[in-house]
Amino acid sequence: MIETPYLLFLGDAPDQLAAKVAQGIKDWRPEHAVGQFRLEGCKADLGLKDMDLAAAKAAGARTLVIGVANRGGVISQAWKKVLVAALEEGFDLASGLHNLLRDEPELVAVAEACGRSLHDVRVPEVDYPIANGKKRSGKRCLAVGTDCSVGKMYTSLAMDKEMKARGLKSSFRATGQTGILITGDGVPLDAVVADFMAGSIEWLTPDNDADHWDMIEGQGSLFHVSYSGVTMALIHGGQPDALILSHEPTRTHMRGLPDYALPSLEQLRDTALPLARIANPDCQVVGISVNTAAMGEDEAMACLDEIEKRMGLPAADPFRQGAGKLVDALAAM
Amino acid sequence: MIETPYLLFLGDAPDQLAAKVAQGIKDWRPEHAVGQFRLEGCKADLGLKDMDLAAAKAAGARTLVIGVANRGGVISQAWKKVLVAALEEGFDLASGLHNLLRDEPELVAVAEACGRSLHDVRVPEVDYPIANGKKRSGKRCLAVGTDCSVGKMYTSLAMDKEMKARGLKSSFRATGQTGILITGDGVPLDAVVADFMAGSIEWLTPDNDADHWDMIEGQGSLFHVSYSGVTMALIHGGQPDALILSHEPTRTHMRGLPDYALPSLEQLRDTALPLARIANPDCQVVGISVNTAAMGEDEAMACLDEIEKRMGLPAADPFRQGAGKLVDALAAM
């Protein structure tokens, strides 16, 4: 569990895209984003107040989050100076970098001396159990995709936001590094040891109030041969009551696999639902989330309309339109 | 890669069952089993020649394999004395124990001093790639089960043996600790990090002669919610040309999951085959392996007959009858 709120470290980001993790935190958990810390030459700007460490501390920030990719995969001396100072000022550090904070002896030594924590969100911090498959109280919704990176995390975050706006009980349950940094907690599923994958998702989505929904962040795709095992573990560990099908209609092949065509939404439905019903016989497919970012407004609306008619299910682009329609579908269950 | 042949260490096994890994090596790779090493009070006997370290060395043994469970999960002083002496005599050590050899400082120190290797087959020794899904040359056969522990490893070993007896090209590809100790190589799939599961199976079953078959050891079951992700990774990483359905007809619920009924063989076929065809559109279900150990001869034959008629596929118990019928089915493809 990463202590919030955050000071978002943008370093010397070469452009706005390099700071997309920080952007995600600011977009989805603005209450966690006290300010931004930028080094000279930083080309990203979240529109947050620029703060030094002392100002952020005074504003209540508890953790400095590295919300930016590092150039060349090295934690530079310029960065390290700030990270050390932050530990000395009483901040914890959290990072999704490939190079781990814990592999930097200087940071480890200072953190220990100052009694602060280093959170590398790519690495599991918990000994997860083996899944027991027992029915849990409360409700769970999982987005499953025709491919990787089609907007599953965005869909779950948007649905969680809409649920909360309606005064309904909802928790976003992160299963990837960006999601974990956004919400401060979660399971880095792609780094969990095989035997414990499903158990980690049971751990992440425990018994809850009967009217509470976990919005579980999806990973991979049953149709993506590199990661389908991870998706399978999410479906069985999450024992979802509701599935959202996620799709990006302009993609021409599976991400990173040029020889693999995308499945149709019908194939995804007919594959995912029977598998989900092994763990939860009452599971239903309730809606479709379509990432229309590559389309103009008219084309996007026509695409959504066609999918909705063809599949007989509500279809929405939660980025373009909000997640109201998808949350309506959950509420109607 | 564990150096063969082996001296099989049975320790102070309280009964024959405790030595089942050693028994598996002796049954399936008798040419790897030079002799057995027993401590006082050992109640297991493989029918191999009892040898001390010097005699085994003279007979060509390269690795001392701990083919027995340890009492109380502790590597005792009596064991350690033998293990240290073995390293000093020039043996490598291989173990499938939960306590790792590498966590015993004395063994690590002696191994280093003597230039010997410690193989803990529960722990991956390779940095596996992420699966790329590319079509590989050669053929692959995978056993998929209605449940865990229904005889998938036995089926693959028996088919591999029958293939070799017919002069056909075949390799048993181990994915679990017993299989790895039997064959000296493999992937401890349940201990591989999620993102690399399918890639580890691609690594294990590389390009090969067009008429060569990999007999891939199955794990878990698509219907076992604790381990289904592991099974999924095997199906997509293995890109099998042939599936064998494995079943234990007397089981009343999924292993360890009292609330979960077993699927029918039809359900297994209809679930596994479309998933397998994502990675290999030519995949076929070619036969059924039935573990009839809990049945008398007449009952077993009637059961096999019924399954064969119902499913329209050859059905055999490879332990009771040999794997001839299943290999015939492969040859007929």
Automatic annotation (TrEMBL), chains A, B:
Pfam family, one: DUF1611
Transmembrane regions listed in the UniProt entry: none
Coiled-coil residues: none
Top-level taxon of the source organism: Bacteria
SUPFAM superfamilies: P-loop containing nucleoside triphosphate hydrolases
Domain D-glutamate N-acetyltransferase-like C-terminal: 130-327
Residues covered by the D-glutamate N-acetyltransferase-like N-terminal domain: 39-124
InterPro entries: DgcN-like (IPR011669), DgcN-like_C (IPR035086), DgcN-like_N (IPR035402), P-loop_NTPase (IPR027417)
Gene3D superfamilies with a match to the protein in the record: NAD(P)-binding Rossmann-like Domain (3.40.50.720), P-loop containing nucleotide triphosphate hydrolases (3.40.50.300)
NCBIfam families given in the database record: DgcN
The protein, known as: DUF1611 domain-containing protein
